[in-house]
Design brief:
- This protein is mainly alpha-helical.
- It has one domain.
- It contains eight helices and two strands.
- It has helices at residues 26-39, 41-49, 53-70, 76-83, 88-92, 100-109, 111-129, 157-181, and strands at 3-4, 13-14.
- A two-stranded antiparallel ribbon has the order 1-2.
- Strand 1 and strand 2 (13-14) form a beta hairpin.
- Helix 1 (26-39) packs across helix 3, helix 2 (41-49) runs antiparallel to helix 3 and helix 7 (111-129) crosses helix 8.
- The chain starts with a strand and ends with a helix.
Length: 182
């Protein structure tokens, strides 16, 4: 079953799509990703631990990885290849050269920040998808832990978003690990 069933007067929540571009137009999704990253307390932590151009690069990589994971692009090598092509990822990266090692290292170092950014983005995309009708979202939004990332039925939206963020980052790590084994 791919929906969450809620009480009366609420919409059924669709399973989070493989790409949030199903819910939100891709150009708007880039803006939502940037807003999610800049609204995150961990975003300031990036700036505090980096210096000079590294700050800008780290912020860009947070937006880039969050966008990629939100749109179903997980493997660092695939991201690196797509950065060579004109398009959204090249725009986000501001044509800065990145390799798969840089992306893997960033994900490992800032995993929790990337996860939190994904959760904020899922919430923003869901609100946009609902046309701002937040009464249908299963408020209140309170942080919660995910014990089993495979369970999506009968969970409140935020819990599902946390689980989905964990799953996507785990998928990226798994694909990168497999890539290094080849």
């Amino acid at each position: 079953m791919n929906t969450l069933t809620h009480d009366r007067n609420r919409l059924d929540l669709n399973f989070i799509p493989h790409s949030l571009a199903v819910w939100v137009e891709p150009t708007l999704l880039v803006g939502l990703t940037y807003e999610a990253a800049t609204s995150l307390a961990g975003f300031d932590q990036l700036a505090a631990e980096e210096e000079g151009d590294a700050v800008t690069r780290s912020k860009m990589m947070l937006v880039l990885l969050t966008y990629c994971y939100a749109t179903g692009i997980y493997a660092s090598r695939e991201i690196q290849e797509k950065l060579q092509e004109p398009g959204t990822l090249n725009y986000i990266s501001a044509n800065q050269p990145l390799n798969s090692d840089d992306l893997r290292h960033f994900r490992r170092r800032w995993r929790q920040v990337v996860q939190a950014c994904l959760v904020i983005l899922f919430k923003a995309a869901w609100r946009t998808h609902l046309g701002g009708r937040t009464e249908l979202m299963g408020e209140p939004w309170t942080p919660t832990e995910c014990a089993d990332s495979s369970v999506y039925i009968h969970l409140e939206p935020l819990r599902q978003f946390v689980c989905e963020a964990e799953t996507r980052i785990g998928r990226a790590a798994q694909l990168d690990s497999m890539d290094l084994d080849v």
